[in-house]
Amino acid sequence: MILFSSMFLYEYSTDMIAKAVKLSECDGVEFWVETPYFWIDRNTEKLESLLDFELLLHAPVLDLNPVSVNSGVCDLSLKETLYTISLCKKVGGKLVTIHAGKRSASREPVWTDYNSLHRYLRISSNFSRIKGVQLSLENSERKVNSLCKTAEEVEFFASSYGLWITYDIKHSSDEKFLKLVERIKNVHVSSEGDGKHVMASKSEKVYWILKELSEMGYRGYLTIELDDLGIGNLDFEKKVEILRKEADFLRRIFPR
Length: 256
Prior knowledge:
256 residues, alpha/beta, two-stranded antiparallel ribbon, 38% helix, globular, Sugar phosphate isomerase/epimerase, Xyl_isomerase-like_sf, isomerase activity
């Protein structure tokens, strides 16, 4: 299944995002609930145009941090994740991706940060099982204060709480993540350009990672995750064209 992240079309309505799914010949969308058109009032009727496609959800991360030194931020981050899990159940979504967070200071995480992560994952995973929703932990960016930026940490927390893994290639090209292929359910596909998510088809390294995943038998979700700030000033038609080309690139690597 080839999808794209709704944040590439952040300025458009869900009807336009649904139109982009058809025009790009993708199978569906990973919907960030923070997509402004929806987030402003959280009216679930706005999601109806997406229900004919494969639908994944991404829990809120902007301005949030489940391991913040500020307990209020931790609680709000958890609350929004639980909301996303409930929303996923309500609209028939297939998977919710979550982030592990980061130490508030730009320093290596310490035991208090990991205690907060355990609490966040314990409550979130229990709630997802009650709701019958699949939960997937994404590997973090390789920054000094990030939790779950290594394959070892992601595997430990995912296995401890019965989670799937969302492997973001731009966040890490470490081949150790390939060894987790049986637990990976979603792959965020892009390469890096000035710190932004840009087209995977531009990167030889990303091509070989994807090729290896294909040869290892990976048949989970492939989510094109792009940031137009790393690409340029794009109108709707140009964005759709890029998504179509990236989808074709992925089909050549992962033949159906």
